[in-house]
């Protein structure tokens, strides 16, 4: 009711007809706009058994595991129970989000959950969820199960009228043919699906909104200009299968501070790959690299260290470290070879051996 936004304490014991879980869910939903400063703080619900034909109440209950709520003692006193007290049974006859169920079970050991549907994939961003469900939900129940997610589908963002409202697109569990991510003009985080073997050329070229890119588990080629000029990109998550970083995929990503280690499978770092990544402090390159092309780390003005694990100096293009004063760490016993190698010799005074 209208008072739900003002409720601070919730205590119902052994009054199952009141449906305390439903009441609690309604209060949490009413206070969603309050964020982590929600008025409701202390909760105790004991002796309930409730049955549902949708997982909505369960989804709301999952908020109680976020650490911003506490419990009440049997006497109604705060400060004696660190987490909300939920002691009863909930039966759900529908599909449900496995992430929420895991969170509830890990937090509330006196809460019994009986689930008769299938686990579904949770998509946090409501605009991304609307589009993904419209593409993958074959039985129209509002959920995407693992079985539905495994069926190859076309996920073309230019076909979605609210693409510009999506902030997080997590496709990691989807067999998606991805198209037109450039339409995601307000995207903050993008995690590619497992079907892709390469990023698209100019995938997020000059997108000034994106902050995190995860390339997916099966990408082997990071294409040209994947994120060139993405001035707010802070983090890139690679996988352990990448073979080549083509020319300038991350050029002028001036906010980039974190990138996964470049794996041993990678044999080439293309020209201008990280040119102008002026906030990047360190990078690790695996044992498989045979070529680092021209200007690959040029203008990385904050770079302090570059670790390269291969004992055989890769071919190094011109100006690879121009306006970049980082120390270069190579495997023990390979220092002399690096210091004598073509173009590496120009940086001999800052090449050091390192025990990997």
Short key terms for the protein model shown above:
5-stranded parallel beta sheet, LRR_dom_sf, Surface_bspA-like, Leucine-rich repeat, LRR (right-handed beta-alpha superhelix), 356 residues
Produce a short descriptive summary.
Helix content is 13%, strand content 24%.
Give an overview in words.
InterPro entries: LRR_5, LRR_dom_sf, Surface_bspA-like. With 356 residues, this protein is an alpha/beta fold. Helices cover 13% and strands 24% of the residues. Strands 1, 2, 3, 4 and 6 form a 5-stranded parallel beta sheet that branches. The relative contact order is 0.06. The model has no long low-confidence stretch (mean pLDDT 96).
What is the CATH-assigned architecture of one domain?
A: Alpha-Beta Horseshoe
Please report the first level of CATH classification, the CATH class of one domain. Alpha Beta
What would you call the shape? elongated
Order of helices and strands: EHEHEEEHEEHHEEEEEEEEEEEEEEEHE
Percent helix range: 10-25%
Write the CATH homologous superfamily of one domain: Ribonuclease Inhibitor
Arithmetic mean pLDDT: 96
Pfam family, one: LRR_5
InterPro entries: LRR_5, LRR_dom_sf, Surface_bspA-like
Could you outline the blueprint of secondary structure elements for this entry?
Elements: E1 9-13, H1 20-30, E2 42-52, H2 56-61, E3 70-71, E4 85-92, E5 96-97, H3 98-107, E6 111-115, E7 119-120, H4 126-136, H5 146-149, E8 153-156, E9 168-170, E10 176-179, E11 189-191, E12 212-214, E13 221-222, E14 235-237, E15 244-245, E16 258-259, E17 268-269, E18 282-285, E19 291-292, E20 305-308, E21 315-316, E22 327-331, H6 335-340, E23 351-354
Parallel strand pairs: 1-2, 2-3, 2-4, 4-6, 5-7, 8-10, 9-11, 11-12, 12-14, 13-15, 14-16, 15-17, 17-19, 18-20, 19-21, 20-22, 22-23
InterPro entries: LRR_5 (IPR026906), LRR_dom_sf (IPR032675), Surface_bspA-like (IPR053139)
Pfam families: LRR_5
């Amino acid at each position: 009711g209208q008072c739900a936004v003002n409720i601070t304490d919730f205590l119902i014991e052994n009054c199952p007809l009141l449906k305390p879980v439903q009441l609690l869910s309604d209060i949490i939903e009413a206070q969603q706009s309050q964020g982590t400063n929600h008025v409701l703080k202390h909760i105790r619900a004991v002796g309930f058994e409730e049955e549902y034909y949708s997982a909505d109440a369960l989804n709301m209950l999952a908020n109680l595991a976020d650490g911003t709520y506490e419990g009440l003692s049997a006497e109604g006193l705060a400060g004696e129970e660190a987490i909300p007290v939920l002691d009863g049974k909930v039966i759900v006859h529908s599909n449900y989000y496995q992430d929420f169920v895991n969170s509830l079970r890990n937090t509330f050991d006196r809460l019994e959950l009986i689930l008769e549907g299938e686990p579904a994939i949770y998509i946090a961003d409501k605009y991304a969820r609307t589009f993904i469900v419209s593409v993958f939900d074959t039985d129209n129940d509002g959920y995407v199960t693992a079985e539905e997610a495994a069926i190859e589908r076309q996920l073309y963002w230019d076909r979605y009228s609210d693409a510009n409202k999506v902030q997080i697109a997590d496709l990691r569990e989807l067999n998606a043919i991805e198209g037109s991510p450039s339409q995601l003009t307000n995207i903050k985080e993008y995690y590619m699906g497992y079907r892709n073997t390469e990023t698209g050329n100019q995938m997020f070229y000059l997108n000034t909104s994106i902050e995190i890119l995860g390339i997916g588990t099966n990408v082997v080629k990071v294409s040209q200009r994947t994120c060139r000029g993405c001035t707010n990109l802070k983090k890139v998550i690679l996988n352990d299968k990448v073979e080549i970083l083509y020319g300038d995929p991350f050029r002028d990503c001036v906010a980039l501070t974190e990138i996964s280690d470049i794996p041993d499978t990678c044999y080439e770092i293309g020209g201008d790959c990280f040119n102008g990544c002026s906030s990047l402090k360190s990078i690790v390159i695996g044992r498989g690299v045979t070529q680092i092309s021209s200007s690959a780390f040029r203008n990385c003005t904050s770079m302090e260290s570059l670790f390269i694990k291969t004992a055989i100096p890769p071919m190094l293009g011109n100006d690879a470290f121009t306006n970049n004063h980082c120390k270069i760490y190579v495997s023990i016993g390979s220092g002399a070879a690096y210091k004598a190698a073509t173009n590496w010799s120009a940086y001999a005074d800052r090449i050091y051996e390192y025990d990997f």
